[in-house]
From TrEMBL:
GO CC term (a single one): plasma membrane
Domain CobQ/CobB/MinD/ParA nucleotide binding: 139-298
Gene3D superfamilies: P-loop containing nucleotide triphosphate hydrolases
Organism per entry: Pseudoduganella namucuonensis
GO terms of molecular function: ATP binding; protein tyrosine kinase activity
Keyword annotations: ATP-binding, Kinase, Nucleotide-binding, Receptor, Transferase, Tyrosine-protein kinase
One Pfam short name: CbiA
Highest rank taxon of the organism: Bacteria
Protein known as: Receptor protein-tyrosine kinase
Length: 298
C-alpha cells in the first residue's frame, strides 16, 4: 500500500492565524499523496511550457493521474481535505477523514460549530478539551478521533492526545506506532518528537499513549500533565484528549481537571442517570467546565 510522508503544516506555521488557509500547489498535493514523483512533476512542468495548459490537465493528458485524482487534489487545495481510502491507513471507522459530509457526521459537525461559536472563538490561545464518559464502550475514543479530524478540516491546528492508558485506541485508528507518546512526555521526553502528523490532514497531529506505565493513575495525577498541556496549547488551536472511562478509576478526572474543559459522551441505552449524575458531581468538584453532553446513538 502506497503511503505519503507526514505534512507538518501546523508545525511549520505555528504563528499562522487560526483557520487561515495555507496555499499548496496542485503538484505538491499530488506528490504528498504519493501520486506523482519529483521526476513526473518536472515532466509535467516541461510539457506545460510547450502547450500552456494547467498543471492538472497536463498530468491527466500524460496519463499520470486520473480525473478523480485531480478532483481530490483540488479538494485539498481549497481546504476540503479528505483521504483517499485506497492509499492511506487511517481506519475506515474515522469516517470524517474520508467522508466528512456523511450524514452520520452531522451531529459532530454541529458540535464543532457550537464549540467554535460559543467557546473557542473567544479564546485567543489554544484550548484543551477532555472527552469523558461514565462507562467503557460508549464511543468516546472514536468520537474523539472524528472530532479531531473535523477541526483539522477547518484549518485549525489540532492535536489529539490519547490519555487512555487502560485501553488506548488512537494509534490503531491512525495506524501509528505506540512505542513513545504521552507516557514519554510525562517523563520529560521532548514533546515535538512525540507528535505524528497525519498524511493528507496536515493540520492534525496525534500523540498516542506510548508505552503503558505501571502507575497510570499516579502518572496522570502529577503536575507534569499540566505542564505538557500548557506547552502544546501554545502551538495548537485546540487540543482534544481521549480519557479512560470514569467507572473504574480516577484518571479521567485528573485529565479533565488539567484540561479545564470536558465533553461528556453518553451512549444511547448504555449510561444510567445515576452514573451520569455521580460523574457530573465529581467533575464539578474538580472545577471542570462541562461544555456539554453528546449522545452517541451508534
Amino acid at each position: 500500500m502506497k503511503t505519503s510522508n507526514p505534512i507538518p503544516i501546523a508545525s511549520e506555521n505555528a504563528s499562522a492565524q487560526r483557520g487561515a488557509a495555507v496555499y499548496r500547489p496542485i503538484g505538491t498535493i499530488l506528490k504528498d499523496g504519493g501520486l506523482l514523483s519529483v521526476d513526473a512533476i518536472r515532466a509535467v512542468c516541461e510539457t506545460q511550457q510547450l502547450d500552456g495548459t494547467l498543471f492538472g490537465a497536463t498530468a491527466i493528458a500524460l496519463g499520470m493521474i486520473s480525473e478523480n485524482d485531480l478532483a481530490e487534489a483540488l479538494r485539498h487545495q481549497f481546504g476540503c481535505c479528505r483521504l483517499l481510502g485506497e492509499r492511506l491507513n487511517v481506519s475506515a471507522e474515522v469516517v470524517a477523514a474520508y467522508r466528512p459530509d456523511d450524514a452520520n457526521m452531522r451531529p459532530l459537525r454541529d458540535l464543532r460549530g457550537m464549540l467554535m461559536l460559543r467557546h473557542l472563538n473567544h479564546c485567543p490561545d489554544g484550548q484543551a478539551i477532555a472527552l469523558t464518559s461514565a462507562h467503557r464502550c460508549e464511543g468516546r475514543s472514536l468520537m474523539s478521533a472524528n472530532l479531531a479530524v473535523l477541526f483539522a478540516q477547518m484549518n485549525w491546528r489540532t492535536l489529539l492526545i490519547d490519555a487512555d492508558f487502560r485501553s488506548p485506541r488512537q494509534h490503531e485508528y491512525f495506524a501509528l506506532q505506540n512505542r513513545r507518546g504521552l507516557s514519554s512526555a510525562l517523563n520529560g521526553y521532548p514533546i515535538a518528537e512525540l507528535l505524528s502528523w497525519i498524511p493528507g490532514l496536515g493540520f492534525l497531529a496525534v500523540m498516542p499513549t506510548g508505552a503503558p506505565p505501571p502507575n497510570p493513575e499516579e502518572l496522570l495525577g502529577r503536575s507534569m500533565l499540566a505542564i505538557v498541556l500548557e506547552q502544546v496549547k501554545r502551538d495548537f488551536d485546540i487540543v482534544l484528549i481521549d480519557t479512560p472511562s470514569c467507572e473504574l478509576n480516577h484518571e479521567a478526572y485528573s485529565v479533565s481537571a488539567c484540561a479545564g474543559n470536558t465533553i461528556v459522551v453518553v451512549k444511547n441505552g448504555h449510561s444510567s442517570v445515576a452514573s451520569l449524575k455521580k460523574m457530573r458531581d465529581s467533575l464539578e468538584n474538580c472545577q471542570v467546565n462541562i461544555l456539554g453532553y453528546v449522545l452517541n446513538e451508534f
